[in-house]
Specification:
With 60 residues, the chain is α+β, with helices and mostly antiparallel strands. The chain is built from 2 helices and 3 strands; from the N terminus they run E-H-E-E-H. 38% of the residues lie in helices and 22% in strands.
Amino acid sequence: MNEVIYTEPFSDRLRDQMNLVSVGGSISFDLRGNECFLFPTAEARNEYRALKSKGEGRAV
């Protein structure tokens, strides 16, 4: 069975990295060797997106 991988593009912004850690994510590499944000679950990725949107002043 294939494992689902939840990622977002890497960001060098400190706030984005703090949000990543707060939802249990980590910095990893994709299959091409590019840095990315890796999340343990879809819920963690959604929570990260919500935090990022809130920090940018947009409604979720």
